[in-house]
Design goal:
- The protein folds into two domains: 124 residues, no CATH class; 121 residues, Yope Regulator, Chain: A (2-Layer Sandwich), CATH 3.30.1460.
- It is 23% helix and 34% strand.
- It is built from seven helices and 17 strands.
- A hairpin with a 2-residue loop joins strand 9 and strand 10.
- The chain is globular and about 50 Å long.
- The relative contact order is 0.17.
Length: 289
């Protein structure tokens, strides 16, 4: 059985230097919270803990599908930041205006889920400049939404790992990360994805991202996005449909990547083993490590 690693495999960047050349404490001070280093990338998360989103009767946990994030790379003087913001429809215009006024590129605005209440949208962006300036601009843009900023509240006590987690791990042949009631996988593609001469890493959003949470006793919900090259798109659609996993969106997240990649979002609720088998069938159609 092919085994998939949980950890994002980080690729060496031929243009920008590593995250250790970033003064991450300055980014933390500006954004009001700390991030995590992942090889060459410094990633800061802003989960939408303020939202109460329901899909198919499931109350979506922030870690399942409501996580805004920013991934910094480069040096203090020559940095980039890219990421994804989870927004309500009436927040989009204000946030976009702030980002554009700071010179950020908007690469996509679209849905990831469908039939959820309230509706949530996702804005993908890229900025370049001095790291602290980028962080200030991002903080200013986030103020145009109700995204919680500043230090998060105290973490809840660690939850006992439910039995379905091992069922999913076994079915996928992988060990996911269990945190905040969500089992998450980040599975890297086998070939590098390049943008503007930079090899992107999983922490910058180019890993197969698959999340699970309990939906009801004996059932789990799954969502996330598959990162696909063109000839993988329809085989993955067929694999998902054959296992009653709904495709909720198919689109791009970036502007100048090579090879051209497509992001396919999905949703299903069902028994852990059957849902896991559907996800594994899709993964078997993708060139992954």
């Amino acid at each position: 059985m092919r085994l998939y690693t949980l950890a994002f495999v980080l690729l060496i960047c031929p243009v920008m230097t590593a995250a250790q050349d970033l003064t991450t404490t300055k980014i933390d001070e500006t954004l009001g919270r700390t991030g995590q280093k992942s090889g060459d990338i410094y990633r800061v998360s802003f989960p939408r803990t303020d939202l109460h989103v329901i899909a198919d009767g499931v109350a979506i946990k922030p870690g399942l599908a409501l996580g805004s994030w920013a991934a910094f790379a480069g040096t203090d003087e020559h940095a980039s930041v890219m990421g994804d913001l989870v927004l309500l429809p009436d927040e989009i215009d204000g946030v976009m205006r702030k980002l554009r006024s700071a010179g950020f590129e908007i690469s996509a605005v679209h849905n990831h889920l469908d039939q959820e209440t309230p509706q949530v949208m996702y804005m993908h962006y890229m900025g370049r400049g001095e790291a602290t300036d980028l962080a200030k601009s991002l903080r200013s843009a986030l103020a145009g939404s109700k995204t919680p900023v500043g230090l998060p509240g105290a973490s809840a006590a660690a939850e006992a790992t439910p039995s379905w987690v091992q069922t999913v791990n076994t079915t996928l042949g992988a060990q996911g990360k269990w945190a905040g009631g969500v089992l998450s996988f980040g599975i890297p593609r086998s070939e590098p994805i390049m943008e503007d001469g930079m090899a992107l890493s999983g922490a910058q959003g180019v890993a197969e991202s698959i999340n699970f949470q309990e939906a009801s006793p004996g059932k789990v919900a799954t969502t996330g996005d598959f990162v696909l090259i063109a000839h993988e798109v329809n085989p993955v659609i067929s694999a998902l449909l054959e296992h009653n996993i709904r495709v909720t969106a198919l689109h791009t997240h970036m502007l100048t990547e090579h090879p051209r990649i497509f992001f396919m979002h999905f949703w299903a609720v069902g028994p852990p083993e059957s849902v896991g088998l559907g996800i594994k069938a899709a993964l078997d159609k993708i060139q992954i490590k």
